[in-house]
């Protein structure tokens, strides 16, 4: 016996394989996997999980780590099953050059840690968690807000920033301004950037008080952000001491896919999300001399990293050239996205390569396969070769929520002179039936008294307003003549329409709101003007008492929405981004529309408050909004409510059953019903729609799962659209798949091909069985015990497996419709077996026959009948299908009628063999193919997709809609 990994497993491993096994077997993951198994499975790994996997675990299809699926590997390397060879060891010893055989079937598992806090209302836990989680082996959780002062490194800090997108200069300056120490800047710009070097240097100097020396160089558009530090600034980086630090950043937009929107912001947030985050990140190096490089965890769209992709050979070549020996056979974790902080010693081997810009290919939008991608992957391996370590970091506060943390209030200060004072448009909308009583006159007069020459008050009267208009003209004639007050009329009685007219007419740089019961402190407008001058980047200001309501509170309920809205002000530029009141929301009083406007105002970030309140509202709190109006606004902002855990996802499952009267004949329907129950058990709301109901209006649907068989579906872009291709793959084109956010394929081989084309937007998800419907202990009372059983409709054609039994006189019993003329009547024992009795029929039969559509068998689509029979404890003989080896020989397969006869006669005569295979198949299906497993996989996939849409507004349901 060779190698300590063998241990009690009695497995002989070569020294190389043993080392690879220890490197890539994940004991913690293995134990976690076992802990998630259903109660009663009785699998105990003992003190040595590795030994358990080598002796037993692989035979049960258990995963040794998150990136290797033994069953999927068997499906693609079928000869291993006949050899009874551990697929993971085969991959380590011989199959690494076929990395695609393992990587496509990585488990999409998020990483959770108790230090990752999420604020808002109730946080969802488990598979349904809709707040951001991390992917990758995160070692350090950095606190977004922390009073701790970590030690800072004593050497030099050099920042290399590649600013390909020069319009992102302000964003990058904001990140670098959070560094707590003096730093040097090596700034690279593309040769074609239309900006003067002196202008760019001045911009960085003005925004960075800790900036030391700055060097700017123009670079060709080759090698993305990698060539600048490896080539253009090679001499500067080589001159650093080994312990000096290099922080590498670049302007990142990732225009090649909407699934990468936000990636650059995420990377910057993970290293420099706040001054506290930046200090803690640098402090890691001061506290740990063995730390060589830190980088953010994986972006969700790259959760299946790491792998070499198309650069394996190039990585091996570069590693040897750097004098570091052989590259790791399996790609190590790496800083995906190329934001990192490293000791200079880690970069030195790359700098010794002597590469030039011409060695990097010309930029053509490549997403993999280039020299830059190879360098990115090797950055994860070099630290270990130097006796150092590469660690991933995460921030306890997700980057999407950082903008919603209230910024420091703007201090009230004396008016300051400015070259250009922002004008303020005060907007007021009133119902036309009001009278100009003394209180209202005082409100309007007080606002006009605070105005300066650059300000204006726009008053819009809604509906019939002749009397009120005459009163205003009489009372405020001088102000109207001077242009300080403009009075307009709206034909609509809805105040939201009147507010919109005021917005359209506004000419000031700032817009603020005035109500009939508004109370302004003296100098309110001037305080607001000074705040706008002091915070030029702020878009929204709150002038009420205390801090502005949290985003989560605003989403949950509209209490005080109208009155609170009158305490807000915003830049008029937001109108160019579509900011408007929605007249379709709620009643004419406009309260629902004002709530909606506040949610729009704070959609991308928290408002900045004034240090002293200057707006209040007289009178009592208005009555609550009616439920119908509440629902309208909540549906419109539903995506963000999901992000804050204020509701649970609602999923519609679409099955192609054509008519209600015959829907019970469709196995897809029963599978969908079981899946819906599993999703609901995990906290979702789920509904099953058959074909006539596919396009019914359900405004609160968040996601659609199309169980794609014979009929295609037209996806609605308002939903997260998931396609589960369970049959008839010849009818599903690549163009159709591209219309979905994610594609599940119920076949290993076909899934591998789809993943190769679509990447992380596709995954394998076989069909499954429901243990609540199918279980070995089912009551067999009154159930016929057939020798050979086939349950299925004829499809109006001769199905070759039943036909083979008929032609050879085997004791076949058929249950199904439309067999007239296709099978002698003596074989047809019934037209239908109710789904809730199928388990008993399968369990009572000695042999259950299964077949596939020919194209499904050829492309590896596994019939769910195999899953159902296995879960029920039955024995199954099937036609052969690609990837059948994933069932580890527990499903007997045949390719010819003669093989069918031989198999049936053999197993009818061997009860022990039937019993053993049935028990093994039941164990396999129970461990890996329960409907609960599919529900978990769907929710793991759905979570990031829902979060990506959180800031998108939905069309609200029409008034009166009752669902």
Automatic annotation (TrEMBL):
<dbReference type="Pfam" id="PF13524">
    <property type="entry name" value="Glyco_trans_1_2"/>
</dbReference>
<feature type="domain" description="Spore protein YkvP/CgeB glycosyl transferase-like">
    <location>
        <begin position="799"/>
        <end position="940"/>
    </location>
</feature>
<keyword id="KW-0614">Plasmid</keyword>
<dbReference type="InterPro" id="IPR007739">
    <property type="entry name" value="RgpF"/>
</dbReference>
<dbReference type="InterPro" id="IPR055259">
    <property type="entry name" value="YkvP/CgeB_Glyco_trans-like"/>
</dbReference>
<dbReference type="InterPro" id="IPR029044">
    <property type="entry name" value="Nucleotide-diphossugar_trans"/>
</dbReference>
<protein>
    <submittedName>
        <fullName>RB115</fullName>
    </submittedName>
</protein>
<dbReference type="Pfam" id="PF05045">
    <property type="entry name" value="RgpF"/>
</dbReference>
